[in-house]
Write a structure and sequence with these properties.
The protein is an alpha+beta fold. It has one domain. It is 51% helix and 22% strand. A three-stranded antiparallel sheet has the order 1-2-3. A hairpin with a 5-residue loop joins strand 1 and strand 2. Helix 1 packs antiparallel against helix 2. InterPro entries: Rv3654c-like (IPR021202). GO terms for molecular function: helicase activity.
């Protein structure tokens, strides 16, 4: 009986760990999406500031770190960002990536 209880607790711990990882991945993706959109607005001149600085501020506001920012395209209106969100200490940080701007 004790073995079944320990196995059930172990399964529950694994499920909670994966749920936390899923939440962190969702937060990282959302932060990347919103950061890329804000940075693209800055690149087009619709918002003050440099695109990567704006993206870093939006990512920080959503509890993420901006780990990469690239302004590209002939007119410089396309922005690609990479974000990270810390997850459970046993797992690596969750990452997100997004691109915003006019279609290629």
């Amino acid at each position: 009986m004790a073995g079944i209880a320990i196995a059930a607790l172990l399964v529950l711990a694994v499920v909670v760990l994966f749920a936390q990882a899923s939440v962190a991945a969702s937060r990282a993706a959302t932060a990347a999406d919103l950061s890329a959109l804000a940075a693209a607005d800055a690149a087009r001149g619709l918002r003050d500031g440099s695109p990567c600085a704006v993206a870093a501020g939006v990512a920080a506001h959503h509890g993420a770190r901006l780990t990469g920012c690239l302004v590209q395209g002939q007119s410089g209106h396309i922005v690609q960002v990479h974000t990270e969100v810390d997850s459970v200490p046993a797992l690596p940080p969750a990452s997100g990536r997004a691109r915003a701007g006019p279609p290629p």
